[in-house]
Amino acid sequence: MERLQKVIAAYGYTSRRKAEELIKRQKVMVNGKIITELGTKVSPQDVISIDGVIINKDVKHEYYMLNKPRSVISSVTDDAGRITVVDLIDTEARIYPIGRLDYDTTGLILLTNDGEFANTLMHPSFEIEKTYIAKLDKVLTKDDILAIKKGITVDKRKVEVKRFKVKKRDLEKGTDIVEITIIEGRNHIIKKLFKELGVNVEKLSRIGYGFLDVKNLKSGEYRMLTIKEIKKLYALAKK
Ligand code: URA
User: At a CB cut-off of 8 Å and minimum separation 6, what does 194 contact?
Assistant: First the structure.
């Protein structure tokens, strides 16, 4: 038995918080009865409907990895009418991105309609390695590099850097291209980290997410995750 709002989120219908609002607004029925209690528990056999539409029948979970292009927003819809990561994937399922990449960041992003999977991967305790390539508007000093490796404090919390290297240095233009691996997922974290050193990130791309890498996907291309990959991600989260 699981809490109703958790089950609604797990079916990918909406977030847990929004599910709670729907319950309070008497939009949710279990086995034909309106539920208003937030803690109500349901079993897999219970039929859940929202606004009269059954949500837990034949819902197939889908899992994708996308190589996000620039100028695409990491959300389901956009009020300003910009293209979203969901627009790029050809499916009828109500998928959404797991976490986000900035509008101008490219690279690997996962999408699913499995709320439990998404919640698990987005939880702060899930310390999966994320690797980025960043083009900087300056050449880093030795001290900068030491500071990055030691851990720069951003918004009162140190950013643990697992790996760092300068991949390419252009002394004429005064720019560095670096590869950096971190385990946390705060918004804009890479840009903020370099900002602490007075350095701007001109281009940013996520090339790796745990054991997944974006190498075989061109910009805008996507593929489904394999069962093995999904299980492996779950196993990493349970560690
Ligand atoms: N860090 C950033 O600054 N931007 C991203 O899109 C991802 C990580």
Answer: 134, 136, 200, 201
